[in-house]
Each structure stands twice: as C-alpha cells, then as structure tokens.
Amino acid sequence: MTAPPNALSEAPGGSAASLGDLVSQPYRYGFVTDIETEKIAKGLDEDVVRLISAKKKEPAFLLDFRLRAFRHWQKLEEPDWATLKYPKIDYQNIIYYAAPKQQQDKKASLDEVDPKLLETFEKLGIPLSEQKRLSNVAVDAVFDSVSIATTYKEKLAEDGVIFCSFTEAVEEHPELIERYLGTVVPSNDNYFAALNSAVFSDGSFVLIPKGVACPMDLSTYFRINSGDTGQFERTLIVAEEGASVSYLEGCTAPMFDTNQLHAAVVELVALDDASIKYSTVQNWYAGDENGKGGIYNFVTKRGQCRGERSHISWTQVETGSAITWKYPSCVLQGADSVGEFYSVALTNHRQQADTGSKMIHVGPRTRSTIVSKGISAGHSSNSYRGLVQMGPKAVGARNFSQCDSMLIGDQAAANTYPYIRSQQPDAAIEHEASTCRISEDQLFYLQSRGIGFEEAVSMMVSGFCRDVFNQLPMEFAAEADKLLALKLEGSVG
Amino acid sequence: MILPDAELLLQIVDLHARVDDQPILKGVNLEIRAGEIHAVMGRNGSGKSTLSKVLAGHPSYRVTGGSVLFRGEDLLALPPEQRARIGVFLGFQYPVEIPGVSNLEFLRVATNARRLERGEEELDTFSFEDLVHERLQVVQMDPAFLARSVNEGFSGGEKKRNEILQMALLEPLLAILDETDSGLDIDALRIVAGGVNHLATAANATLLITHYQRLLDVITPDFVHVMAAGRILRTGGKELALELEQRGYDWVDQELADQELANQGAPALGVV
Amino acid sequence: MVLASPVSNLHSAWASRLLEGLPAVTGDLAELQRRGRAALAATPLPQQHQEDWRFTDLSPLTALTPRWRKACPELPSDLPAPAPGTLRLWLDGRGDPLAGVVLPAGLTPLSPAELDGALGHSLAAVGCEHHWPVQFNHATAGRCLALRVSGPEPISLELVSAASQPESLLPLRLLLLLEEQAELELSQVLLGSGSSLTSLVLEAHLGRGARLRHAVIALGEAPACLLGHLAVEQESESRYQLSTASRGWALARLEPRISQLSGAAHTQLTGLQLAEERQVAVTHSWVRFEGPDGSLEQLHKAIADGQGRSVFNGAVRVPRAAQRTNASQLSRNLLLSPQARIDTKPELEIVADDVRCAHGATVSRLQLDQLFYLQSRGIDVELAANLLKRGFCAEALQQLPTAAANWRPLERLLRQGSPLGELP
Ligand SMILES: Nc1ncnc2c1ncn2[C@@H]1O[C@H](COP(=O)(O)OP(=O)(O)OP(=O)(O)O)[C@@H](O)[C@H]1O
Ligand SMILES: [Mg+2]
C-alpha cells in the first residue's frame, strides 16, 4: 500500500508522523465534586417556576417576568433551522434547580464557603481565597444553579462598580434589574431565551457607572457539577455613559455520559460612549469521541449599542460542548456605534457547532466587523451562521465580514450561511469566506526548519486564529492557544 | 516659463479643508499664471494630494475656509465634471480601476464633454479613434489598452501613462499631476515627462506634485513650493528642489516650531 | 398543529381556481400532468416561513389569475433576425415547435419511449422534483421539447417564447440529452408582458466531455411573472456555461440546479438581475459535486432600484467524495434606492478537506471614487452613473452565444422603461 496523498486524511495506523496519532488528550476538567446538593424534583411546570422564584425570595415583577416567559415558551416549538442533529430533549427529565446544601444563602465571607467548593475552583485554576486569588481579575464563581462567591466586590464598589451574583442584584438593586432585564433579549425572543427567562437561577450582574473605566477585568466562571441538572444563568451588563469594562467568561463541566442542557442569556447595554468587551473561552465537556455525553449549549447573547459612539465587542473561543448554538449579536442603535465579533470555533469528534453573529445596523454611520474562524476535525460539524442587516436609517453604515474554515480530515463538515440584507444604498457590506486545509507545503516548510510535526500543526492552527486571539485579554489568549492545541490532539490524521 | 503679463489662471487664498472632520489643509495660498510650471514637494502626509483633490472637487473633502478662483471664476462652486470641462485636470496619485467600463468609450465621452464646453464639435467614433491614436504617440502607449476596462489590471506605470493620455486628450489649462512620476521605470519617466513638456504651452500651466528631483531634471519648474502641515511653508525657484534633495525636510520642523512660537505671541485672527 | 392562515386559504383558492380550468390530461406527458395536478392540489403555495422562500415575496404571483388560454397567438413580427447558422424555434406552449422544421444533423427528437425514460431524471438528480414551481409546470405543461444532441459539429439553437395575453399561462418543458463530446449553444429568450405567467422547466444531461453554452435572456414587463427551474446533470469532463439575465418581471424566480455526477466537470454560472419599481427578482442556485476534481465559477450580479427587491441564494455542496473541488462564488449587488432591498445569502456546505472554496458578497451603491474619477474627466453624474451601471452589467454578459447577444440584452437591460420596447 502506498502512502495516502494527503497525510492529513485518515492515515493507516502506526504512521508516527500522521496528525491522527496525536493523542486524544483527556478532558482535564472532567472531575465531579462530591458535595451534598439540594435539588428540586425533575420536570418543569408553572409550580417549578414559582418554586425557583420563591427559593430566591424574588419580588413580584420578577415572578411575573418568569411566568410570562414560561407561558410563552409553552407555545413555542424548539427551533430546527440550524444544521444540528440531536435526539429530542426531554424537558421534563431535567432538574431546574440544584445548589450545594451549605450554600443556601450566599456567605458573607469566603471562610464560610464549603472548602470543597473552594477546592473545586482552585482545581479549575480559579482560586478564590484572599491569598491566592488572581490579582487583576474579579471573579464571580457559579456552581450549578448558584453563585458561591464574588471576589473584589468591595474594592470595585469604591469606584461605584456593581459586580455581584444575579440573586444579590435582585435583592440589593431591584430597580436596576427591573429597568434593564429583558430589554435586550425579550423573554419571548426565542425558544431557549424564553426557557431561560422562566427558570434562570443565577448569573452575574455588572453595572459600570457613568464615566468609570472599570479598574480590573471582571469574570464569571460557570461550573456545572451535577449530572442531571440544567444550567440556566443570566448575565446582565450595563455600561453607563462613557463607562468601559472588559468581561471574561469561562465554563467547564464534569464528564457524564448523559447530556446536560445549558441555556444561558447574556444581555449587554452600552449607553453613549460606553464600551463593553465580552470574551468567552467555552470549554464545556464535549462528549467522548463517539459523541456520548457532553453539554448542549444553547445560548442567546446580545448587546445593544443604545448610545451614540458606543462599542460592543464579542470575542469567543468555542472549543467545548457537544452542541453549540450561539449567535452573539449587536444591535447598533446609537449613531456611530461599533459592533465586533471575533470567533474561533473548534469542533472535533462528534461535536456540532452552529455559531455566528448578527449585526443589526439601525443607526447612521454604525460600523461592524465579523471575523470567524471555524476549525472542523474528526466527524464534527461546524457551521457559521450570521446576519448582517442594514436598516433603512443606517446611512453611511459599514460592515466587513470574514469567515474562514479549516478542515482537518475528510469526515468533518464546514458550513457557511451568511444572511446579508440591505435596505440602505448608502451603506456598504463586504463579506468574504474561504475554506482551506493545512497545506502540506506549509507543513513541510516548517518541518524542514526543524519544527516537529505536532508543533507545526498547532502553529498553523494558531496562525489561522491569530486575528481572533489578538482580541482576547492577554492571559486568555495564551490559554486559548493551549486549549486549541490540546483539543486538536488526536484529531488530525 | 514666467511671462510678465500672463493670465492669472489659479488663485488660492487661505484655503482650509477637512476630511472626516479632521483639518488637513490649514491656509494654503498659491497663484499660478499661464505658461508656468509649479512643483509642490513635501513630506508624506503633508497634504499635497488633499490639495489636488480639493481643487478637483472630491466629495470626501470639505472646504471650511478660503477661496479658489480659476480664471476669476469660483472653482469651488462647480461640480467636479464642470471643473474638468473648463480645463482643470487632475492626474491621480492612485487612479481607480473601473471594471466593465471600456477605456476607449470613457475617453471619448470625456473628450467630447470638454470639446462641447469649448464650443467644438463632438467627435464621432471614427474621428475619435484617429485622435486617440495620434495622442497615444505622446505617451507611447499600446492601443491594446483602449480595448480594456478603465485602468483595470493596469500596472502602476500603465495607469500613470493612461492619466497622461487623458491629459493629452482633454488639453487642460491647468494640469495637476499628483506623483505622476512614482512607479515609473526610467524609460517611462522620460516618456511621461516628455509628454508633459510636449503639452505645455504659453497658454496653460502645470502643477507637479513630486518627491523626486529626477522629474524636475526633465521638467524644469519655474517655482518650487514646500508643503508642511497643510500649508505652503516656503516657495522658491528650481534651486529649492535641489536644496531639499540634499538637506531633506528636517529644517521644516524648526521652521514650523518657530511659526508656532510666533503665533503664540500674536493670536490668530478671530480669537479673542 | 398550525391553523390555516388567511394567506394559505387564499393560496389554496389560487391553485384550485387554476386547476379547475385545466383541460383533461392527454399526450406524452399525461402521467406527469396527473401527478403534478395531484401534488398541486395537495401542497399549498410556498410560504415565506419556508427557508427556500423566505425572501421571495409571492404577492406578484398570487395577484395573477392565470387560466388555460394561449399566451401568445402568434410569433411577434418585430424579433431580431436569427443569427446565421442558428436554428430558431418558437415555443407557444401548445403547438409542436418542430412542425415543419428541418433539424440540422446531430439534433434528433426523442421518441416517446426515450422521453418516458428520461423525463424527471435530471430533476431528481438535483433534488427538485418536488419543488412547487416544478409541480406547477408538470400540472400545466402538455408538451415537452425533447432533443438529443450528438456528433462532433457544434449546434446553435435559439428558443423564443412570448407570453402577452391577459390572464394567460405559458408552460415550457424542455429536455436535452447531450451525448459524449456533443456541443450545443442554447439561447433562450423569454418575453413576458401583461398578466401572464411563464413557467419553465428544463432538464439537461451532459454526457462525458459534452459542452453546453446556455443563455437565458428573460425580458418582462410587470405584472408578468416568470418561474424557471434549470436542472442540469454533468458527466465528467463536461462544461456547462450558463448566463442568465432578467429584467422587468413583477416576479422572476430562476433556479439553476446543477449536479456534477462524478465531479471532474466545469460549471460556470453567470447571473444578472435587475429589480426596479416594485419588482421582485430572485435567483436560487444550487451546485453539488458528487465526485472529485470539479470546478465552479460563479458570478451573480444584481441591481435593485425603485422599490425593487433582489434576492440571491447560492448553495454549493461539497460532500466527502468531492476532494480537490475548486469552487468560487461572488455575489455583487448594487443598491440604488432607499426603498429598494437586497438579500443575498451564499451558502457553502463542505465535508472534504482538500478543497478550495471561496465566496464573497458585496452590497453597496455605486463606488464614490469611481464616480468621482469619471466626473473629474468632465462626465456628468448621471452619465457617469450610467457608465458604471453599464460596466457593472457588461461583465455579466460577456460570454453570451451569438444568438443571445443578437438580442442586445445589455441595451435592453439598461434602456429607460420596459426592456421590451424598441431599441434605437
Ligand atoms: N480620506 C481620508 N481619511 C482620513 N485621513 C485622510 C484622508 N485623506 C487624507 N487623509 C490624511 O490627510 C493627511 C494628508 O494626506 P495627503 O494624501 O494629502 O498627503 P500627501 O502630502 O499627498 O502625502 P504623500 O506624499 O504620501 O502622497 C494624511 O495624514 C492623511 O492620512
Ligand atoms: Mg499624495
């Protein structure tokens, strides 16, 4: 038998130099924390919605919000337009609320937090205790349905910055929640947003007051621990006039051979001259190489550039989840506002990702940029789905989109579905897309300079993603690079 | 050539202009008479192309002050095409490509628009082809370029030759040539410069924007202007260009700083 | 369970009104007619919640009340003379276009048995036999012009049709079998005016090494509508070159669908559509590579002016078998009026790693710098804009067969008023 013409395609076993033989690295965050958890019974009905609200001692407006969402959700059908294949989700077989026993009320001090929880986060690389915590990032740590700790709250408060769990925000700043909740992603926006609006349990709330540049990066770390629980968190970030913030989101989950549902909603509001930079490194458990287990990630993320000259930037590195369904979007309402979307989505084995962005240009001279890099390996499927829309009033608006896919192996799928609509002659849209693979010539060139095969591949992949990584905060960029290299191991070949 | 009683073609007074709300031209003054050849030099970004585009009427540039008269008429009040028709020609630093529009047809339509303005008859396709072939000689350009789309796929030098061909056809009174020499090989430079000399008469004038003495060796300027920070900082004869070639632009900074100081002493008009 | 909306009630009334007036099924296509009518009775009109019809506003179609009446009594007298060496056939949707015609060597009509074997083959291969416009054509077409093309000599064929009678219907059904190495230039001219509806379904099978240069010049005048499906199968080493140009219809929807049966073929698609006034111009193209080494070069251009709407959906499918596919697609759109609208959606599905696929899309008005360049040479804005529009269109009409070029489509697309008017 002669060697296959393409060393990257499924190689016969044993060839040391084939990409396929890079070992499949086990998922590093797949452990389960053994902790006593309070769970409500499986299933979803109006009583469950009321129960969640009661557990959180919520004001009436919030219960109303949940009930309206729930009633609407019941009328909706699960969307099927994405190119995703998965067995029907049984929404009655999910637990909608789970919290560590000790954690019924948020502890005033970290000392009171169950050490097992602190240990969990430490293992995840997110130490929370005073001595060890990250020096330049404030963290809200969410474990299953609840936030267990938020660091640097007091320090941030000195600048008037509010950073706390959603539950605390409801208690302490109900007027802000009432003013902003659901104004960017209405409770009836789509199937999963409606579900989230009905049953969301916790999440983070951020408000950066007028004129304040947030003194440190803010971060929420989501950990799903229990095997039969859905996670439905909600993030709301408001940047008032002239304020700015950089926000990071990370996520992991243990390895179960069942699927867990994660349906989050993120709402961003930027007023005049405000700027929000939202970065995600998503590393939920992706299932095994046969597609068993993994998180179903159905997320609605939307930012509204409400004010003039406001700026919202989404950066995401999506490497985990069995299924990703996610379209971080910007509604560019204020004149001269700017929206950005930078994305790397990597799928391997049986993962499926359907992700992209929507840029809705409403106001004049609004500008947007989309840079999407999809890498598909194994038997995975990776789709870019996006919308760029120039409304009738978007005089002088501009969009540029660049969507590139890289295919590794001949079993993976890369799809591109950009929707482009313009109703404004004085607006310009430019979209480019290309598909490529790691070229053997380039690989050979690197190898002939003494660079090892694996390293050469990961250099090429990270080169492919460079434009996106450049947008990440520095610590994140390095992590993302490593993550990608890890994820790719065992894929190429 | 400097002629004592020559007609005043162009008179720029205290011209201010902005692009994207950013002031670029900050008080340009310049007079050009028939028969004269002017050279404008200056650092990258000093505003030379901006001046040329403002004169040609590019819509992205907003005039915020000052005046420009062409043969006594308010040039700034005219749409770009009318400026071309009355004899103002801009040879672009970066001529755009227009796919699908035939070069020949474009040249014919443009030439006829200028002829009509001058009270001459429009040329039919055949007489125009004769004229084009005659003018092609001026720039020694291959007639094959006529059949292609305007500038599409032309090399840098070919685009510049096409600009001079247009100038030869339109016979402007004032030709503004923005770095027509850059990107030309040695032969092409000679040909293009020869073309410009060939077209220069006592009735018209040329404003050359250039960075290099080598063009001015072939086309001798009557005046050399140095632009800096949106103004004409200094004007001299052809020796000034030689001096610049030797000394570079460092002295410009000193001079600008001096002016800054002087200005602080005497606040600008209108500032109370 | 979705309740029948007023819209869908209206639509089923539209279809049943049409079906009631149709004559009994007869002739070679009887079986197809029977199936088409049954399908039409059972399927509602396409609706905008269906992905494929999302951007197609069907109201110009439902505003028509097509009936079974002859769309054009006779050959119009003011057609341009046929190009030398070209066989012109007149299609009126009823009579035999071949009656009294001497076919050139290499062109033979299919026998009823051959027709029976071939009908629907290409439609199935490109997966559109159940599309509503195809079923509509099947329900109404009583005749199929079916030709076999063979032999080494290139053949030039021109098919002209005109629908002009009020409330009329012109169903056109064509089938072409190009044998190995056969070469055909096919120029189709579709004219439509008044409240007429033209429905076209063409199937073509290109044998190994065969070449088909195909032009569809569709010139209409609202309220006339046009629905056209072009289903093409390509064997390896064949070349299919399609140029479409449409203007003036209240609704024109063209769907070229191509399957490279075992790859290694070349497909070139060039489209140009204008949507002005309240017109809707739609192109949905679909190309699938079933084998390696195929190539696609696609350029689609559209201009939307007035309150016109232009829609382009360009699907490219590259399955695992299609290694070394080279596909490029470009959608270029000019939006010239604030009431007009452009929707464009390239879609690429790839499951093969060694491929080169690229697509691009742009939407803008005329380029300011280009306009200025022309103006700076003394050309007034209006003329400059027209030159640029002409340049924009000309690029898409470069490779027409002579017979199609004879109709001077560029002039017809750019002239003031209807594209059907007299040219100077
Ligand atoms: N459209 C524009 N948008 C923003 N800035 C511009 C624009 N056009 C010009 N400028 C800026 O104005 C300044 C002057 O530019 P200009 O092109 O006139 O310089 P120049 O003297 O011709 O330089 P060069 O010698 O490099 O050709 C530069 O700083 C340039 O960046
Ligand atoms: Mg310049």
Name the CATH class of the domain at 8-94 and 172-263 in chain B. Answer: Alpha Beta
CATH architecture of the domain at 8-94 and 172-263 in chain B: 3-Layer(aba) Sandwich
Strand content of chain A: 25-35%
Query: Nearest-angstrom radius of gyration of chain A?
Result: 22 Å
Helix content of chain A: 10-25%
Largest interface: A-C, 39 and 34 residues
Return the domain count of chain A: 1
What structural class do the secondary elements of chain A suggest?
Answer: alpha/beta
Supply the number of helical segments of chain B: 9
* Main beta sheet of chain A: 10 strands, mixed
Q: Roughly how many Å apart are the termini of chain A?
A: 17 Å
The percent range for strand residues of chain B is 25-35%
N-to-C span of chain B: 45 Å
Helix segment count of chain A? 10
CATH topology of the domain at 8-94 and 172-263 in chain B: Rossmann fold
Q: Gyration radius of chain B, to the nearest Å?
A: 19 Å
Low-confidence stretches of chain B: 266-272
**H/E element order of chain B:** EEEHEEHEEHHEHEHEHEEHH
The order of strands across the largest sheet of chain A is 4-3-7-9-12-14-17-20-22-24
Low-confidence regions of chain A = 1-24
- Lateral strand order in the biggest sheet of chain B: 6-9-10-3-11-12
Structure description:
Chain A is of the alpha/beta class. Chain A has one domain (2-487). Chain A is built from 10 helices and 24 strands. Chain A has helices spanning 46-55, 60-75, 115-123, 153-158, 166-172, 174-180, 191-199, 440-447, 453-469, 474-488, and strands at residues 37-39, 98-100, 137-143, 146-150, 162-165, 202-208, 217-223, 233-239, 244-252, 259-262, 265-270, 275-282, 294-305, 311-318, 323-326, 329-332, 338-347, 352-355, 358-361, 367-376, 381-390, 398-407, 413-422, 428-436. A 10-stranded mixed β-sheet of chain A has the order 4-3-7-9-12-14-17-20-22-24, with helices on one face. Chain A has a 6-stranded parallel beta barrel with strand order 13-15-18-21-19-16. The model of chain A is unreliable at 1-24 (pLDDT under 50). Chain B has 272 residues and is α/β, with parallel strands linked by helices. Chain B has a domain at 8-94 and 172-263: 3-Layer(aba) Sandwich (Rossmann fold). Chain B contains 9 helices and 12 strands. The longest helix of chain B is centred in the last third of the chain and has 16 residues, at 250-265. Chain B is globular and about 65 Å long. Residues 266-272 of chain B have low confidence and may be disordered. Helices cover 20% and strands 38% of the residues of chain C. Chain C is of the alpha/beta class. Chain C has a 9-stranded parallel β-sheet. A 9-stranded mixed β-sheet of chain C has the order 2-3-5-7-9-11-13-15-17. Classes of the chains: A alpha/beta (493), B alpha/beta (272), C alpha/beta (424). Chains A and C meet through strand 23 and strand 24 of A and strand 17 and strand 18 of C. Adenosine-5'-triphosphate binds at residues 19-20, 24, 42, 44-50, 60, 93 of chain B.
